[in-house]
Amino acid sequence: MMAGMRTVWVLLLAAAAANAQPERAVSESVADFHSVRDYIVRAAEKMPDAEYGFRPVAEVRTFAQQIAHIADDQYNLCAPVKGETRKAAYTAIEKSLQTKAELVPELKRAFAYCDGAYEGIGAPFGVVRFGNTTRTKFSMLNWNVWHTWEHYGNIVVYLRVKGLVPPSSEKK
Q1: 24: number of Cβ within 10 Å
Q2: Is residue 124 a contact partner of residue 139, using CB atoms and an 8 Å limit?
Q3: Is the distance from CB of 55 to CB of 61 less than 8 angstroms?
Q4: How far from the centroid of its chain's Cα atoms is residue 160's Cα?
Q5: What is the three-class DSSP state of 94?
Q6: Residue 10 neighbours by CB distance under 10 Å
Q7: What is the distance between the alpha carbons of residues 149 and 93, in angstroms, rounded to a whole number?
Q8: Distance from the Cα of residue 81 to its chain's centroid
């Protein structure tokens, strides 16, 4: 009988641990989003306005276009999670804003919009439509995290070329 009770306890503990894993994955994704969000905002604030038109080579986006693209995708990738459809064009910000004075406040608004998706994720494995595909809410938000980190990596190069230390490399 004791062996049977131990087996039940082990199964109950395993089930509890398995149920905690999705919550942990979501909370870790939210923490990663907050990290990259803060680094990007600080990078956007750090780059001088006169350098917003800078691009390391002709084939890549300007710094302003990078910031605008990141802002656009906060709306594009978080709207489905919030059960909304973005009313603006997919690249509306990138096609219309170019200066630091325009982009920093818009970037902050875009991240605030996405904050609501992360905070209100609810059932993370509920399915949402994105274009012609379906994904889970968690997958959409995780996509946003890695995509935003990818572009942070891009703008780190822009900052370094201009002699600026990226926020993630600043001394504490």
Answers
A1: 10
A2: no
A3: yes
A4: 22
A5: helix
A6: 10
A7: 19
A8: 13
pLDDT surpassing 60 at residue 13:
no
C-beta separation of 154 from 70 below 8 A: no
Grade residue 24 by pLDDT with cuts at 50, 70 and 90: confident
| Average pLDDT over every residue of 137-153 | 95
pLDDT in tens, 72-118: 999 999 999 999 999 999 999 999 999 999 999 999 999 999 999 99
pTM: 0.86
Name the one residue in this structure whose structure tokens are 């780190």. 156
Place of tokens 């710094």: 63
Residues in the chain: 172
Tell me the torsion sign for CA atoms 46, 113, 71, 133: positive
Give residue for tokens 């070329």. Answer: 161
Helix or strand run (H / E) with residue 128: strand 127-130
Instruction: Kindly indicate whether the domain formed by 26-169 is annotated with CATH number 2.40.128.110.
Output: no
- Report whether 125 contacts 136 (CB < 8 A): yes
In this structure, are strands 133-136 and 127-130 parallel, antiparallel, or unpaired? antiparallel
